[in-house]
C-alpha cells in the first residue's frame, strides 16, 4: 500500500494553521486540530501549485507581528 502522504495519484487538501503555515494533506486522513482547510480536495500537483502561489512569506505570523512591532518601536 502507498503512503497516503506520498501518493502522486492521491487526492489532497491544503491546510493552514494559526501561524499561516501551509500543509499538503491527504484527503483520506482526518484534518488535525488547529488546522483549517484552504483548498478542498484536488490532485497533488494542483495543491502544490496553490501552496506556491499563496504561501509567499514563509515566516510564521507571530514572527511577522514581532518584527513589525520591533520596527515600530525603533522609530520612536
TrEMBL record:
Superkingdom: Bacteria
Organism ancestry: Bacteria, Bacillati, Actinomycetota, Actinomycetes, Kitasatosporales
InterPro entries for the chain: MbtH-like_dom, MbtH-like_sf, MLP_fam
Record-given protein name: MbtH protein
Transmembrane stretches, start-end: none
Gene Ontology terms: cellular component: cytosol
Native organism: Kitasatospora atroaurantiaca
GO biological process: siderophore biosynthetic process
Signal sequence annotation: none
Domain MbtH-like: from-to ranges: 3-53
